[in-house]
Amino acid sequence: MSSRACPDWPELMEIAPDLQFKHYTVRESKLPAEVLVSLEDFPLDDVAVCCDMDKHVFFAGHTDARVVEALRQSHWFDLTEWTTSGPGAAIGY
Fold first, then answer.
1. In whole angstroms, what is the distance from residue 64 CA to residue 1 CA?
2. Nearest to 50 by CA among 76, 29, 81, 69
3. Quick check: 23 and 49 in contact, CB under 8 A?
4. DSSP label of 1
5. Given its phi and psi angles, is residue 85 left (phi above 0), alpha (psi -120 to 50 degrees) or beta?
6. What is the distance between the alpha carbons of residues 83 and 16, in angstroms, rounded to a whole number?
7. Which of 11, 35, 65, 77 is most buried, by CB atoms within 10 Å?
8. pLDDT tens string 65-85
9. Please, what is the average pLDDT of the chain?
């Protein structure tokens, strides 16, 4: 799977216009080592992550629940968290 724009990009742009969500495989998304370790025996090339890799924000609605849980234990932000209490809150979303 190659990276591509999220099909819900218009909705996501309304929520956080500074973010650009794309779908990547877990391997392509260059997640932190602690996330990858917690996903032991996981199909890294078959499961998508919907995220803005540059800002470390993921959209849980399009991401496998096991990956979401692992990301929540890292420095990455869920979109909701990013817009309410994270860096996006300072921007005023």
1. 15
2. 29
3. yes
4. -
5. alpha
6. 7
7. 77
8. 999 999 999 999 999 999 988
9. 89
Q: In angstroms, rounded to a whole number, what is the distance separating the alpha carbons of residues 53 and 24? A: 9
Is the pLDDT at 93 greater than 80, yes or no? no
As given in the structure block, the two tokens for residue 18 are 């500074």
Bridge-based pairing state of the strands 57-58 and 77-78: parallel
Q: Is 25 helix (H, G, I), strand (E, B) or coil?
A: strand
Q: What DSSP string runs through 5-23? A: E-TTHHHHHHH-TT---EE
